[in-house]
Write the structure tokens for this entry.
Amino acid sequence: MAAVSDDKPAAPPTTNLGTGARYGWWLGLIGHAIPWAIVVLFFYMAGGYLSLGTQVLIWILFALSLDLALGYAGIVTLGQAAFFGIGAYAAGLFAIHVSPDPILGHLAAIAVAALFGLITGAMILHTTGVTFLMLTLAIVSMLFEYANQARSLTGGDDGLQGMTVNPIFGVFEFNIFGETAYVYAAVVLFIWFLISWRIVHSPFGRSLDGIRQNTRRMRAIGTPVWWRLLAVYTLSAAMAGSAGALSAHATRFVGLSVLSLLTSGIVTVMLILGGTRRLYGAFVGAAVYYLVQDETARISPYFWELVVGLMLIATVLFLEGGLLDLGRVGQRLFWRLRRRTDGR
Amino acid sequence: MNAPVALSVRGLCKSFGALVVAQSIDVDLVPGARVGLIGPNGAGKTTFVNLLTGFLHPDAGTISLGGLSIEMMPPEKRVHHGLARTHQINTLLSEFCVRDNVAVAIAEREKFAWRMMRYRPQWRACLEEAQARLTEMGIGHIGDRIVRELPYGQQRLLEIAIALALKPRVLLLDEPAAGVPSAEAHHIHDVLVRLPSDIAILIIEHDMDVIFRFAREIIVLVQGRVLRRAAPAEIAVDPEVRAVYLGRTVI
């Protein structure tokens, strides 16, 4: 999956309807085709790694939800795990107490997460910076402690067990090899990707980008900043909740860790590693993170954290746009070298 | 002279602790007004603009825009009612290209900036209008340039272009030529002279040449208080004004 990191983004972050034609439509198409081809090919070639692939897809979706809020709108949050966790618990509890139908459960989880995003967003989005960051931390910490204490509902730190999940559409059963789960996650990710793509290229997406760059400018042209942020925050919460529901359905288990601060931290690392504000950054970040974890954990179970940490530092220092910038940096280097050899 | 007042300010007061920055300011702007606001540093000129546009809240006083009371409105609402401003320090979307900076403002003006789908014809019209406005201001050739990479003077022009794109009834210009090298300043002056004649304009400016040529009336603000309001010719010879402000300038 590391091959994705060499892929050029379909469009650099500052392109728009006006100047987007720079790359040519076919190049854009290739940019889109590569990551999705990998998603499809992986299904046939994964062998025993398919469940790991499903996890990667889930985290891609989770990181994508953060990209909308953090990347595009500049909402610096560490509370994204709240929505992921709420989605997971909602899907789990729905399966146990209401109906084992995964589609219904998934929609319910999205609705609950979105509602939670709407309510908490309405309460805290008038703040910015460190204040906002602390409030998101507080919310996710309170949720974690609540889930920990409410053992009868959530199973506490034993996790939520005893879920039964019916076959999707009554046909595709969740089996031990995880084929259904993988396709399910891939389809859900694709739908959310299309929605995200649509949104970030719309006037609404432009206004979010404007708010991130200069809130005061946007207010001076008449943008209702708070409403726009609330809208994208709610949407981001819905997406994260969807990822949580996928996680619950794929493993038929919800652990307390879905609500932990570490979960928020990991998804942020993934997004920054891959690159913010390009949607495919989430793909690269989550894939690389899992790849590094899987490869280096064989050497030592603690070693991988060091490697990821070093990668993150290197990325932040040298690749402003995340690993997705590697392609562009490589290209520039190639041309410079070529020019130099031509000169001689 | 019975034209309806575009902007009417009554008894506007604001203090930061013991520091009084606006003391019962009364100002009227009729449509088409060209009023200069001058005063020494710290007189409260920018504060006054911030109070009018809603970035600061007055302690007392009323602001009415075309008869509508706006002093309780947030800045973005005031914009939709026809009050636009430029900033003393460039406040632009520095990662966007020049045309997009204007287009985003037009999208807000036309109230479709929240749309996530079915926006293409409108957005195209936006970009076209933005380009036309830039051309009109003589910066049409830099529509595709990223704002961050522009020379300061062109950024100042963009500030004005964005404010005009909002089709304001009242425009507040906060030192439009501040920091612009004198070689480029004439370009901004040309733009100022050609501003639509139906807009009421209040301009803050330190360059007395500009203000005496542009303004038909001048308000002198000292320590948050209106010291004088008169025609430029009278202001120039007013001994009190000269004492507090113009003394250092040769007129």
